[in-house]
């Protein structure tokens, strides 16, 4: 029996499922030609909706981590065929994996939306959307319609921080990302997988899917990646099966057969130093997600929770109740780029990813039956409290009296038509830290600011220091009182905020064999 992957060819989640099942060497079939045919197959296979993966036993899974949990717990894996990295044996690789998972699922998804709807000019993707969702032949679509469609999508993406104002930084960040990965794979040409492990991990799935769903499908940046970064492109072909904008599956990927014969646990828990520049880029933007998680904590602790509907849940959470939130929430945080202060509304799935990763890294009792994790937890806690790595090298507070452009809008957060010059001291609390990043055109401003990080070399700080900073941020993201999970409610999909006492009760019932 094969896994049935349903969805849109332009959706990140479909590419995540395909990349995982392919690397996991599981039989699968993809149904994504048009929405009509996808709906037909969803009914045929009794899927909960048209954007999920149906397992051989008939269960529907929305998100990649739900599919991974189902596959890894199904008993098909063996000691010789590993995939998930154990925190007990490889805590550093485990931390790196979940940090990359958040970065790829959240920030690179934003960057992909920027290239697709803001920076791109190609009409192929828009025609593809018309073919999939509206059954309109793509040939001959007037450019005026394409332009109007892009403008409509830009209005949707702007509320989550993707706009013409933030595009320059995202564009430069992506170029630096490709350069850092190219240098890493050039130095380690014999390395098959990102973290130097002898087998694929979730880091390979999340990075590969982010590229295949966005950067290898849209041009730009597809030609930019293929022409300027051959080592990176070779890695992407290996882990995704995409070549020249086409999915070739197992073809031209004969090297994938090699990792099966390698030892599964006989490798060191060491991250290559050549990835220091890559983790610096993650560390550079991760405070934006930390800010969203802090806003979520405040939202749930304040009156915001009263705005949410609490409903009984279905499926694996049957017997529990949760607060249902839509994809774009009312939880707001700031994104500061150069002198622009942008109000960003958090996506529920981004919060779900971040809090899941934080719990995986911080909570040693979560999702594991390994023994001895209390020792790892104690060591990690002592390291955090003794060294106290901070984020002050990139968390910058505007000086009193300085002028900062605050972009505010009732419709979209990034509407420059209502931008106004205002005193930063009036709009930003003095006792709060506000993370700030710069584009190259404003790079000279960094010299005025107090920074710990050097500006001449991306990899000037050891990779262990990068991981310590990421561990600290994940520790601050962790919310022990709620679990977020994508759920079906009827035939619609929501993210449910489930009180932890109900989650604990459900887990005890499951372990006790009640469910």
UniProtKB/TrEMBL annotation:
Gene3D superfamilies referenced in this protein's UniProt entry, alphabetically: 1.20.1050.10
Transmembrane segments: none
Region described as Disordered: 377-409
Organism superkingdom: Eukaryota
Record field: compositional bias (Polar residues): 379-393
CDD domains noted in UniProt: GST_C_family
Protein name (database record): Glutathione S-transferase
Organism, as annotated: Trypanosoma cruzi
């Amino acid at each position: 029996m094969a896994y049935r992957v349903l969805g849109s060819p332009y959706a990140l989640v479909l590419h995540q499922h395909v990349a995982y099942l392919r690397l996991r060497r599981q039989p699968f079939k993809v149904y994504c030609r048009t929405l009509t045919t996808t709906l037909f197959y969803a009914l045929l296979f009794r899927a909960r909706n048209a954007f999920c993966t149906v397992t051989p036993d008939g269960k529907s899974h929305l998100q990649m981590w739900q599919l991974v949990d189902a596959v890894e717990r199904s008993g098909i894996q063996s000691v010789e065929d590993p995939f998930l990295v154990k925190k007990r044996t490889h805590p550093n690789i485990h931390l790196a994996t979940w940090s990359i998972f958040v970065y790829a699922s959240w920030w690179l998804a934003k960057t992909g939306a920027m290239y697709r709807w803001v920076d791109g000019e190609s009409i192929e993707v828009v025609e593809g959307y018309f073919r999939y969702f509206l059954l309109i032949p793509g040939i001959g679509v007037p450019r005026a319609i394409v332009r109007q469609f892009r403008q409509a999508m830009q209005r949707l993406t702007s509320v989550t921080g993707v706009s013409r104002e933030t595009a320059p930084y995202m564009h430069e960040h992506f170029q630096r990302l490709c350069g850092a990965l190219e240098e890493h794979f050039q130095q380690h040409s014999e390395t098959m997988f990102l973290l130097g492990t002898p087998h694929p991990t979730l880091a390979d799935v999340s990075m590969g899917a982010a590229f295949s769903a966005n950067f290898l499908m849209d041009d730009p940046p597809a030609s930019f990646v293929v022409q300027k970064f051959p080592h990176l492109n070779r890695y992407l072909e290996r882990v995704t099966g995409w070549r020249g904008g086409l999915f070739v599956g197992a073809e031209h990927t004969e090297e994938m057969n090699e990792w099966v014969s390698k030892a599964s646990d006989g490798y060191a828990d060491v991250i290559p130093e050549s990835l220091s520049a890559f983790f610096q880029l993650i560390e550079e933007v991760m405070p934006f997600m930390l800010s969203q998680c802090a806003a979520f904590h405040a939202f749930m602790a304040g009156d915001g929770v009263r705005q949410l509907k609490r409903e009984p849940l279905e499926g694996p959470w049957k017997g529990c109740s949760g607060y249902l939130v839509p994809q774009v929430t009312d939880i707001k945080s700031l994104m500061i780029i150069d002198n622009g202060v942008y109000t960003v509304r958090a996506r529920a799935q981004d919060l779900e990813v971040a809090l899941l990763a934080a719990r995986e890294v911080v909570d040693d009792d979560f999702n594991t039956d390994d023994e001895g994790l209390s020792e790892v937890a104690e060591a990690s806690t002592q390291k955090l409290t003794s060294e106290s790595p901070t984020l002050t090298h990139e968390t910058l507070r505007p000086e009193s009296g300085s002028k900062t452009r605050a972009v505010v809008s009732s419709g979209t957060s990034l509407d420059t038509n209502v931008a106004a010059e205002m005193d930063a001291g009036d709009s930003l609390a003095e006792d709060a830290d506000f993370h700030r990043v710069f584009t190259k055109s404003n790079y000279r401003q960094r010299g005025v600011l107090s920074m710990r990080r050097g500006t001449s070399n991306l990899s000037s700080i050891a990779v262990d220091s990068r991981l310590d900073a990421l561990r600290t941020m994940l520790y601050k993201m962790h919310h022990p009182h709620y679990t977020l999970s994508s759920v079906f409610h009827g035939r619609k999909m929501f993210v449910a905020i489930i009180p932890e006492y109900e989650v604990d009760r459900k887990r005890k019932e499951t372990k006790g064999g009640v469910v």
